Amino acid sequence: MRHLFSALFFACLLSGATLFSCRLAEQKHTPHILLITGGHEYEVEAFDRMLSELPVTYDKVAHPYAYPLLKDSEIAKYDAVLLYDMPKEIPEEAQNDFITMLRKGKGLVVLHHAFCSYDFWPEYTRIAGGRYHHYPWTKAGVEQPPSSFRHGVTFDVRVADPTHPVTQGIRDFRITDETYGGTEILPGVHPLLSTDEPTNGPLVAWSHTYENSRVVTFTLGHDSLSWTHPAFVSILSRSLCWVAESNRE
Ligand SMILES: [Zn+2]
Prior knowledge:
Elements (H helix, E strand, L loop, with lengths): L1 H14 L16 E7 L5 H9 L4 E6 L9 H4 L4 E6 L6 H12 L3 E5 L11 H6 L1 E2 L5 E3 L2 E3 L3 E12 L13 E9 L2 E2 L4 E5 L8 E8 L2 E6 L5 H4 L2 H15 L5
Parallel strand pairs: 1-2, 1-3, 3-4, 4-13
Antiparallel strand pairs: 5-10, 6-7, 8-9, 8-11, 11-12, 12-13
The structure holds zinc ion.
């Protein structure tokens, strides 16, 4: 199955990023995604336009209406979840539903400001493979200042693993986007995209497994400057397709 999926990616690469299509090998359908927003403003129309061109179908829900959809009976309709939200807190019941969903292998993509969510839910660090800290934090016993952001930075992004299905065939690229500096990135994650940009941490995207789910955290994506960048669109498409493969429902 893994070979089949790799072959699919390769075939899509030959046909170009815009023609990239995603069909889940086991489920034999196009991934159906639950997009969760809320807690942070964004250009809704332009973001929706970009998503509508991806090789997936999706439903969008904003907080406070998102958490009921994480329950077993509702989330079973979806192959993966795309977070583009930024709430500070999450009720305990929703925490449990979130983790149960990931135990069942539901794929997860944490996009841009969704990396900055849930200041008071430590488990979210393990789910996202890191954390944007709004408050001082401690690393190896040493207090660190809060993380920082800067808008409109033009910087170089390198492909850290050219063999991974998410980055296969993607070349190093230059993009103008918001950077996140002084963030925490867990040591066990698999680097996908890296940068030397001093206002950003060393990684721009990584993957890892949480419970039984594939997770990709991709910190680019503040506005249409990145949403119209072919590398961004390609990486987001491939991330959604790749994490959806871990869904077993
Ligand atoms: Zn932003």
